[in-house]
Amino acid sequence: MAAADREQQTDEPSVISYPLKRTSPFEPPAEYACLRANDPVTRVRLVSGDEAWLVTRYHDVKAVLADTRFSADATRAGFPRFRTGFPRLAAGGVKNITRTGGLMFMRLDPPKHDVLRQMVTSEFSTHRMRAFRPWIAQKVEGLVDELIAAGPPADLVSAVALPLPSLVICEMLGVPAEDRAFFEEQGSLLMSAKATQRQSLVALKTLAEYFERLVTEKESAPGPGIIGRLIAERLHTGQLEREDLIATLRLLVIAGHETTASMIGLMFAGLLARPGELALLRAQPDLIPAAIEEMLRHHTMTMMGLPRVATEDLMIGSTLIRAGEGVIASVVAANWDPSVFPDPDRCDFSRRDRQHVAFGFGVHQCLGQMLARIELAVVLETVLRRMPHLALAVPFERLRFREDLLVFGVDELPVAW
Amino acid sequence: MRITLNEQRCCGSGLCVWIAPDVFGQRQDDGTGIVIDPVPPPARWPLATEAASVCPGQAIRLITDD
Fold first, then answer.
1. Residue A411: strand, helix, or coil
2. 0.90 exceeded by pTM
3. pLDDT bucket at A83, cuts 50 / 70 / 90
4. ipTM of the complex model
């Protein structure tokens, strides 16, 4: 092709296939650096065939997420769909799929979003999560006891990273711990790109039916935990519709599981790949909170970014976004923006900076972020203390990282100690 | 420095309580942020400022009277 032809072609707005691929597990796709510098709001095409604007600069990402004129409502036309073959949700939510209705508040806009979120906000408050810490610590001790008894080697992902978040959410919701395996299975089917559309929809339905049954059981004797409290204080008082209650419960199970589990796995994969950092944390455990923040930033596992749709014509920087056009706020790219985080590729525990957007920004910022921080800190402290010679039991190159649908992670982490 | 918190904008992330627990709290019933020290001494300004800057709802306002 002649150079002139090529130039003429690039006059047309180019459309990038999204998601971009990683070349290294601990670095975002290399293209982000170039996009941030030259094309910070760019057109991408998703596997669903939808086109959207990809936003890669830190301040633009925050501006999009803070602006409720960018809607998080997945039923709106133009909302970017990450998966192929999924029907666009009808305005009635997932009723046609689950027969139990409601949209999760993560996919609702204010004012309804605020009403529903506020009903569970205090359950995740900073004080409440701190008070919960001893319970979490006891569970982690138990998981590590079992792992040590069984090995070495042992898989840190299946022994600790996966069970912990589901044990925690079972306790918080007030459901039997035996249901943990069920939540893990449904959760991974919903979040996995490997699951077929049918499997995911069946998982959604199964989860809704499970909560439907549980709520019916608990209606006569609500008992402790979030479900009991929501029934007694909100459902019975008429403040909360049954279908919205079910949707909130689905959200609490889905949002906290795969995400926390993936981050625990990535945290140890990263530390084991960089033994100097592991040694540093052993020598100075008081660095752990700062280390967690830096690993959240550096490893940002929300690799697909956060989807929104413009409800009116809006500017992002110097780019006009038309009403009805989809936007993806790349928290991964934002967290590696060198204008905010100098030398972003360095995982640097002395970076005293809590400005990262690993939990998002704006009214939809992760409700469970304090819980996630505590789970990560407790697991890290416990493993460092109980497994003084922690090391990978296989060469690093053998680890399989997965670029699943919504979260980046490591499949297995065989370790010795 | 005076500190105000717009309850309508607050989404209850609890970040302010985590970063500056001497200045901010969260209501028991709905998790909404509250200012427990609206006119903090200068020693508390750096963390109060950081809390305001990371607030996801941009609900915290710092008023400096120069």
1. coil
2. yes
3. confident
4. 0.95
